[in-house]
Recover the amino acids of this structure.
């Protein structure tokens, strides 16, 4: 019997090494983006980078999943400081730009953006 | 909600009351047990203790070297007992007897202290050790070279620095360590290195610099030593002499009142740091500013080693 398996989005993107490759690029763009950089002021870099890795793994369809409650709790202090849709959009934009810079095909970038989109309501506490 | 945690903590066989949310260090100190401690943040490793039985929370072994983990050592300040846990003081061999061989001033606020240990410490320059006075008071200091050279900033009213300022060659101490991952590794001897720090952040950088040169590092090495003004600098003559001797080494004393903030000065000198490796040391505020600046300049996050000096807590 011949079995064909569809590779997952995470596998198509390159798995953990792809997360490693993307995390610095993505985090640097976020820190340099005046629309959102204030939210990262004074945040511990090591901790932030490991969170960004978890986030990228999740939106790449990889083996990390936050519950809606985790995301609400984790962002509640930022929502209190004014985190809204425009900031969420800016993060997704930086994510797309990072992946494009790494040569990821636009169909895959759209899939990643769609996965990220599923977290919007919880991140923004809606 | 119960105030008393469901776990049982004991010290050398005697139960110690542990409140919900307590660290083992807090519980032991409240019970009147004199555990050496300083930073309360898992960095100085003064509060090293050994578990004889029970379950060690994973967070309690953060930053410990493998040989200590394997012997069930843990840091009391990071340990929130979740289940039964029996602790005892560190065994012999963990703290090494040592004595001071030299105490002298490098500037009007920084002491150079040299030590001789009675057994090898197995350290890399740039790592740190914890120095204990005979009465058990402990503080962490970076190691500035192959020999055990420490740079101690004189803190007005500071217990350890005041004691060291009066100490003499021959005085006995004990040391524990080493710890920390801020040191040179010769895997790419052509890579440009950027060393930056302020105050006694120079100590680990001086150790890393000398280690890199001794191991034949070929790539450029830039050392930035930040200070408010001239009086905050030290070892300037030695560093200038090293720069004259080694064509690949640049020494940049950076005075806030003359050159402006150190991160900006580095950005002006090196707008792109993509292929560089960085070491940043000193108090946490400057370390965080520097590592962020190096990262935004293009340095890979994993290429940046940082050592933020935490103050001793007074509680």
């Amino acid at each position: 019997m011949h079995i064909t398996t569809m590779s997952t989005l995470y596998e198509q993107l390159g798995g953990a090494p792809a997360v490693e490759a993307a995390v610095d690029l993505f985090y640097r763009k976020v820190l340099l983006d005046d629309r959102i950089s204030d939210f990262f002021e004074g945040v511990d870099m090591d901790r932030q980078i490991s969170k960004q890795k978890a986030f990228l793994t999740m939106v790449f369809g990889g083996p990390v999943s936050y519950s809606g409650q985790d995301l609400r709790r984790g962002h509640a202090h930022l929502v209190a400081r004014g985190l809204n849709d425009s900031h969420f959009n800016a993060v997704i934009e930086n994510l797309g730009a990072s992946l494009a810079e790494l040569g990821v095909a636009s169909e895959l970038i759209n899939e990643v953006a769609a996965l990220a989109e599923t977290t919007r309501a919880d991140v923004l506490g809606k | 909600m119960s105030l008393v945690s469901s776990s049982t903590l004991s010290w050398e066989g005697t139960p110690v009351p542990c409140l919900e949310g307590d660290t083992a260090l807090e519980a032991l100190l409240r019970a009147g047990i004199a555990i050496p401690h300083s930073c309360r943040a898992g960095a100085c490793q003064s509060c090293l203790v050994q578990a004889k039985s029970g379950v060690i929370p994973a967070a309690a072994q953060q930053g410990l070297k493998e040989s200590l983990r394997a012997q069930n050592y843990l840091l009391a300040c990071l340990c929130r007992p979740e289940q039964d846990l029996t602790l005892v003081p560190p065994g012999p061999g963990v703290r090494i007897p040592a004595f001071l061989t030299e105490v002298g001033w490098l500037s009007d606020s920084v002491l150079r202290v040299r030590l001789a240990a009675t057994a090898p410490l197995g350290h890399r320059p740039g790592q740190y050790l914890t120095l204990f006075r005979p009465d058990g008071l402990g503080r962490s200091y970076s190691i500035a070279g192959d020999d055990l050279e420490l740079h101690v900033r004189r803190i007005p009213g500071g217990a350890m620095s005041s004691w060291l300022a009066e100490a003499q060659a021959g005085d006995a101490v004990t040391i524990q360590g080493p710890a920390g991952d801020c040191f040179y590794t010769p895997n790419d001897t052509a890579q440009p290195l950027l060393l930056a720090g302020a105050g006694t952040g120079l100590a680990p950088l001086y150790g890393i610099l000398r280690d890199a040169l001794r191991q034949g590092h070929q790539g450029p090495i830039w050392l930035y030593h930040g200070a408010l003004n001239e009086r905050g600098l030290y070892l300037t003559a030695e560093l200038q002499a090293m720069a004259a001797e080694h064509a690949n080494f640049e020494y940049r004393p950076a005075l806030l009142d003359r050159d402006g903030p150190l991160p900006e000065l580095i950005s002006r000198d090196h707008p792109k740091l993509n292929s560089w490796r960085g070491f940043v040391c000193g108090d946490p505020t400057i370390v965080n500013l520097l590592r962020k600046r190096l990262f935004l300049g293009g340095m890979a996050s994993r290429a940046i080693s940082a050592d933020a000096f935490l103050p001793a807590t007074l509680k």
Q: What stands out?
A: Helices of chain A lie at 9-13, 15-32, 45-59, 68-80, 85-101, 106-117, 120-123. Chain A is about 65% helix and 0% strand. Residues 20 and 53 of chain A are 7 Å apart (CA to CA).
